[in-house]
């Protein structure tokens, strides 16, 4: 047993929830952002501003035509796998081999590909690390083992993982359509909390393909956390804190949450309020890239995702047009309501003596 522990330590193979559930998951979201999400944004910009370079076909592969954004979107599997490999501290030969692994897992995982990529990439990366530099023909052995393990597990577990992710996501979306009030609260709170925790709400939404009304509730929860924390901590953190949390990440408050969990009350209660308002009053839907559902106001990605969904719905006839009510709902849920509700709740929490000056200082 000691030899095994020594070997794993030497290879930097750490079997832990933090390494796989936080580091790898967070990196996967970054890979998605740099491929699927950016590709979607490029396509939307090209369509809305009628930019020929972004609208025309730049490559045709196996009969499939790709725009610039389409090429970026098509690389989501490899991008996720390489990002995961980087988070797991893979040596170069393993990291480069993850491109093939990600492509295989995402393709065989179907609509639930991101979840398949997460599991398969972790397995392939750790096997690759285990054999890395153990032989004199490392340049052959390491890529061969990494790719072989990745493709084998893609064939073995990617399809059922993809189906499972889609099943769970569909259940959540179906339940939200059936019970928009209760599920609006539940989805908003849970995804919002995941956004602030050191895990990736964006990766979770992507893995579950969370869109539609449930995606709208997720956006509401994330915005409540980010804008909520930004506003209630303005006294301590001023404009720098407002920007870094409001369009950056509320994860910056995790240290303060650990020291005094009650500072989290206002953003969580706010998300419980704005979630059902988003689903029941405004009918806010995220029909853009699922990863956008878990981004909130981070770089305004959540709002761009909602807008992209509107554009797609108009294009395919599912929506007659983008109305003033749509814009009012998006602005209210994303910015106005969190900025108004969170401080009111936080004032009550402070009055009870649960939070004091300096508790939210970054």
What does this structure look like?
This protein is mainly α and 362 residues long. The chain has 2 domains: 2-166, no CATH class; 179-351, no CATH class. The chain is built from 16 helices and 2 strands. The protein has helices at residues 2-10, 17-48, 52-55, 68-74, 76-87, 92-109, 113-131, 138-178, 180-196, 201-208, 212-232, 234-246, 254-259, 265-281, 301-315, 324-351; strands spanning 59-61, 64-66. Strands 1-2 form a two-stranded antiparallel sheet. β1 and β2 form a beta hairpin. α2 (17-48) runs antiparallel to α4. It is globular and about 65 Å long. The mean pLDDT is 92.
Characterize this entry briefly.
The chain is mostly helical.
The biggest beta sheet reads: 2 strands, antiparallel
N-end to C-end Cα span: 43 Å
Note poorly predicted spans.
none
Helical content (DSSP H or I, runs of 4+): over 70%
Strand order of the largest sheet: 1-2
Total number of domains: 2
Which SSEs are present, and which pair or pack?
Blueprint: H1 2-10, H2 17-48, H3 52-55, E1 59-61, E2 64-66, H4 68-74, H5 76-87, H6 92-109, H7 113-131, H8 138-178, H9 180-196, H10 201-208, H11 212-232, H12 234-246, H13 254-259, H14 265-281, H15 301-315, H16 324-351
Antiparallel strand pairs: 1-2
Helix pairs in contact: 2-4, 2-5, 2-10, 2-15, 5-6, 5-7, 6-7, 6-8, 7-8, 7-10, 8-9, 8-11, 9-10, 9-11, 9-14, 11-12, 11-14, 11-16, 14-16
């Amino acid at each position: 047993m000691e030899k095994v522990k020594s070997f794993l330590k030497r290879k930097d193979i750490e079997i832990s929830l933090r390494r796989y559930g936080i580091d790898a998951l967070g990196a996967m979201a970054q890979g998605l952002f740099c491929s699927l999400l950016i590709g979607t944004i490029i396509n939307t910009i090209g369509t809305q501003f009628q930019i020929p370079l972004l609208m025309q076909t730049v490559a045709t592969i196996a009969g499939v035509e790709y725009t610039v954004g389409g090429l970026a979107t098509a690389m989501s599997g490899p991008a996720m796998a390489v990002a995961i490999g980087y988070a797991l501290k893979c040596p170069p030969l393993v990291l480069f081999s993850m491109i093939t692994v990600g492509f295989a897992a995402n393709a065989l995982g179907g609509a639930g590909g991101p979840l398949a990529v997460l599991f398969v990439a972790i397995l392939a990366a750790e096997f690759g690390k285990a054999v890395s530099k153990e032989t004199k023909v490392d340049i052959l052995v390491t890529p061969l083992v990494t790719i072989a393990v990745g493709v084998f597990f893609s064939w073995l577990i990617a399809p059922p993982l993809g189906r499972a992710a889609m099943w769970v996501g569909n259940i959540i979306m179906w339940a939200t359509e059936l019970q928009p009030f209760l599920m609006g609260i539940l989805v908003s709170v849970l995804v919002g909390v995941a956004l602030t925790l050191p895990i990736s709400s964006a990766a979770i939404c992507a893995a579950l393909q969370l869109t539609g009304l449930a995606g709208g509730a997720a956006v509401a929860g994330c915005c409540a956390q980010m804008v909520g924390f930004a506003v209630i901590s303005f006294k301590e953190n001023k404009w720098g804190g407002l920007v870094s949390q409001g369009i950056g990440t509320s994860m910056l408050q995790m240290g303060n949450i650990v020291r005094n969990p009650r500072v989290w009350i206002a953003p969580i209660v706010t998300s419980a309020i704005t979630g059902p308002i988003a689903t029941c009053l405004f009918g806010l839907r995220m029909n853009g890239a699922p990863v956008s559902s878990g981004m909130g106001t981070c770089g305004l990605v959540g709002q761009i995702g909602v807008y992209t969904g509107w554009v797609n719905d108009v294009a395919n006839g599912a929506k007659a047009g983008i109305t003033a009510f749509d814009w009012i709902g998006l602005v209210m849920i994303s910015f106005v309501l969190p900025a108004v509700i969170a401080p009111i709740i936080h004032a009550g929490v402070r009055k009870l003596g649960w939070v004091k000056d300096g508790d939210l200082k970054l």
